Amino acid sequence: MNEDWSGSGMPDDPWHLKTPPLTSEYTIHRDDDADPPLLICQVGSTKLTYLSRAVDDLHEMLIAHGDWMPLGAADEQKEPAAGTVEAWGRSHDNPVGGWYGQRKGYRGRFAMYLPPLLEALGLVELEHNARNNRVRAIVQPG
Fold first, then answer.
1. N or C, fewer C-beta in 10 Å, the chain?
2. 48-69 burial, b for 16+ CB within 10 Å, e for fewer?
3. Where do runs of H (alpha helix) occur along the chain?
4. How far apart are the first and last CA of the chain?
5. What is the mean pLDDT of residues 75-92?
6. Beta carbons of 73 and 110 less than 8 angstroms apart
7. Is residue 55 left, alpha or beta, with left meaning phi > 0 and alpha meaning psi from -120 to 50?
8. Residue 28: in which H helix or E strand, if any?
9. Distance CA 51, CA 23 (A)
10. Confidence (pTM)
11. CA angle 103-106-107, nearest 5°?
């Protein structure tokens, strides 16, 4: 597991994470008071929001996928490559029927910011190459 993170995920103690290539830092915290509950991702001065259920949904999808999956991170305006985590995070076939990102204009980059959180939580293995990183689920016993 990558040890380039800290925090508890609460607003006063957000998770401090790094992007998969370990080149940029950002924070995420849970907002369980939001309806629906959100993950608030702060990247410099930019705030992105994702449905908090994305953690469990992404992990379940990766378990079902059963192997390494390319991340394919892309901005909202760019079409993601098929068969990537980014494409799944926007697909009408995912459990929420579309975007996990909630802030219009900033709904992309799902595959850049969510997999490192799942890695910090011990749910996935994540590659940390300069580009073309992949992720796969760690199946929890029991």
1. C
2. bbbbbebbebbbebbeeeeeeb
3. 54-65, 85-88, 110-120
4. 20
5. 97
6. yes
7. alpha
8. strand 25-31
9. 25
10. 0.94
11. 75
